[in-house]
Predict the 3D structure of the following.
Amino acid sequence: MNLYAILAIYKFEMARTWRTLMQSIASPVLSTTLYFVVFGTAIGSRMGEIDGVSYGAFIIPGLVMLSLLSESISNASFGIFFPKFSGTIYEVLSAPVSPFEIVAGYVGAAASKSMLLGLLILATARIFVDYQIEHPVWMICFLALTAVTFSLFGFIIGIWADDFQKLQVIPLMVITPLTFLGGAFYSINMLPEPWQSITLFNPVVYLISGFRWAFYGVADVHIAVSFGMTLFFLTLCLTGIWWIFRTGYRIKS
Amino acid sequence: MESVISVQALDKTYDSGFSALRNVHLDIHKGEIFALLGPNGAGKTTLISIICGIVNPTVGTVKADGYDIVKDYRKARGKIGLVPQELCTDAFESVWATVSFSRGLFGKAPNPAYLEQVLRQLSLWEKKDAKIRELSGGMKRRVMIAKALSHEPDILFLDEPTAGVDVELRRDMWEMVRELRERGVTIILTTHYIEEAEEMADRIGVINKGEIILVEDKSVLMDKLGQKQLHLTLDHPLEEIPSGLNGASLALGEGGHTLIYSYDSHDDNVGVANLLSNLSTQGINVKDLHSTESSLEDIFVNLVKEH
Ligand SMILES: Nc1ncnc2c1ncn2[C@@H]1O[C@H](COP(=O)(O)OP(=O)(O)O)[C@@H](O)[C@H]1O
Ligand SMILES: [Mg+2]
């Protein structure tokens, strides 16, 4: 195992975060704060409790997920897209590194970054809402699994994209709508049929539900199902990446 | 001679269907400077990219220091440093950071003293904290070389190292290449500047349209193909080459006003002396004479034309 290589890539990617601190950390925190002010405090004060949880507290796990998903994807996709775009990827390809080490470096950094961000948002939320975390270990577990899974997904997008537009289209056109419709701001039990059943095809429902369970012990779907689905997405992304490196898809001619 | 890179029956067909390399066999000797010479689009970069692991071969095998580049890619790639043709660097990184990154990527423990030595040798030490985008093109090229040397490779590929490079850097680069060779590093450079190959290389390979058409010691190549010509301007034009002269190596030019004598540049010049004395016995007066020597350039142009 070429640990120096993993570390080199990881450090390189993290250095990019600190260089672009405003963009990578400050702006997601700011936009989440705005959600809290609008939905949590202003509108939330006029809303009743959902599943015994105040509305302001109820939306916290969903908001964290929203940032976690989009940041994981955009960090990881940009991290691998840019060397491809600028040509510096030649060095990684010519180095004695295995696909696993490349992915560990890039995805590890992207996931660390978005987890850090998720925790930062939680800390920010504390200023506005008093919330408790019933199952802290599970909370961290879901946070980490989701960050890794969607960083892997972002890595795949970064490999697939051959221009900047494609890089942004999936997070913007797919992930954001799925998150909004995935129960970030409401419990899916509040939806009438058939929407309630249709919603179950939205993968983000399971992530948010599981994450919210870790906070308040209440969930839209059973925690075991949420956990199983998260692992399933992880496996799906790992398979995609395995295929990319086996075929050299869009990285080697 | 121990071979450090061994390419066997290598074919490359790109996805577009373009056949960039055809049945390439090539052995690079340990410790030599090998120049791969060929016009644009000949397949030089493709060949190097395959050896370095950037492009997949279609058919064939490549070994670096005895290790197969696919099955034993870790060991093979660890030996190799590459300075690619295109200038591509991380604009926002500092010189020091990017060189340290390269070393780590190749699995080597940090060694600031060694990196300092590399940067000093390339006159980059003063710029070590500068962001790469602040550097001039020539300096960026030096950074790429420093990156390639950061992990102490035994084999160094330089893909068109001096294309669009100023005189000073070119001189520094040649100097550096010689020093590396002294230390036992094998160097493979591609170029379409003949003078570069002529000046630097121990051996020369010529590639054209994806095929290696010749590999030869530079001196042997010059010997074998290096012909000299003596142009004699005559007082009175000749109708034909007079009998009694060695007709095989003579030709008439400019309507018989010049007599052209071709000879091997490594012959003792008996031929020229004989010719001159024969001409004077036959009463043919020579007004003027000059000789020309074929350079690698001529050889190269001839070779590429033939194929
Ligand atoms: N990725 C690619 N897809 C298709 N054709 C390519 C690709 N890369 C290079 N070629 C073609 O292969 C030929 C050899 O290119 P290259 O190896 O770069 O030549 P050289 O380095 O000798 O100038 C060229 O005709 C080039 O257009
Ligand atoms: Mg080239």
Remarks:
- Chain A has one domain: 3-247.
- The pocket of magnesium ion (ligand 2) is lined by residues B 44-45, 85, 159-160 (CB under 6 Å).
- Residues 25 and 177 of chain A are 22 Å apart (CA to CA).
